[in-house]
Amino acid sequence: MKKKRGTRWLAGFAGLAVLLGGATGCTAGRAITATSTAAAQASESAPSTTAPPSQSASGAAAISQSAPAQAAAPTVKAEAYAGWKAFTSPQAGYTLKYPSTWLLRTNRSGDGTENVHLTSPGGLEITAWSFTKQSAYGTDAFKMNPTGSCGAQCLATNSKTGLSIPNYGPASVIYTTAGAGGGTINEILMGTAEGALYIGSPTHAGFCSTFTGVFQGRSQEQNTVQPAADFAAENDVKDAEMIYRSLSY
Fold first, then answer.
1. Cβ neighbourhood burial of 110 (10 Å; 0-12, 13-18, 19+)
2. pLDDT at 23 over 80
3. Residue 26 has what DSSP assignment?
């Protein structure tokens, strides 16, 4: 039987959204500035670079340095969400849809920080943090990464496709391979059009949110050997991308 990831290894990835987040993306008036319909549509359809990991001889996911492929943003029709539930964050003001088979858990602290977990039947968990820069969580986040650059745990961006969030503007769905505690893990993230992972709320001043999707129930070995393309092809991951694309304010 393969040994499950240790608590410390899991905690490293649970905080990855903070390490990847951008300081400027949390302030009102940045990505929230009014954008023309044409610009939003251009962001939605713009192709992105893709550099998927390749499988090494030892079975570990190695980062490919080959020429990136082009990926166009998919279109999700409204009927695809038939039967899905909806959640609205009282802290940050966003609404997202999720399959009825997924489990929703929420927690809020005294300083207004909100932690939302959406877990699929297969163990993929989307964690959404919403917080202010002045909160304890936000203070630590901005202290760790004030510039918004990709943190040390980020090994590769496997793909990045555009979308337009109603009442917000251009954004992106980002697939990454991250590393910590001696292993790697594939993730699906939400970011700004520029790739910063702090989404500033246009309706709740001062609040920003991060969205990170990983398989929490898998062993370190299972996560280490899974190629990025196989991760993106899993049904739970496809549902996670649809959840991200349902986001609105």
1. exposed
2. no
3. G
